[in-house]
Amino acid sequence: MADLELVAQLRTTLGRLEAALGAVEEALAFTDLDGIVEWTNASFDRFVGLSRLQCLGRSLSRILPDRQCQDSAEPRAGQPFWMQAPQGTTTWELTSTPPRRVIEVSWATVNVPSKPSLAFTFRDQSAIVQA
User: Fold this and answer.
1) Model pTM?
2) Which of 12, 39, 80, 109 has its CA 20 to 30 A from that of 119?
3) pLDDT at 18 over 50
4) How many Å apart are CA 87 and CA 44, to the nearest integer?
5) May I ask the CATH architecture of the domain 25-130?
């Protein structure tokens, strides 16, 4: 019976974690190492203008908005930005005309033994740039 209680507790905890991550302002996404979306939060869904179900199983690079890199970390030809390093941060300008929309993108490899993943955060920096 203890195993069933543990499973129930784990399900409750995962549900609470899902709710908490859904409430944060930053857009979050988890992908496999090839950039195939495995999970998103509500902020990410709003950021890309798609529902979670429309994001799951798709390539991250195909659903992100068009942008211009604002730093020296230009991607190699034909290679997604996250393949440059196991973790990093870059800045994208989504609109250059006022009001400017600027996003800071960070990623890191999550080393799970059976299946490593990537975790992404997308933070709106527009208010800082406008000031």
Assistant:
1) 0.81
2) 12
3) yes
4) 19
5) 2-Layer Sandwich (3.30)
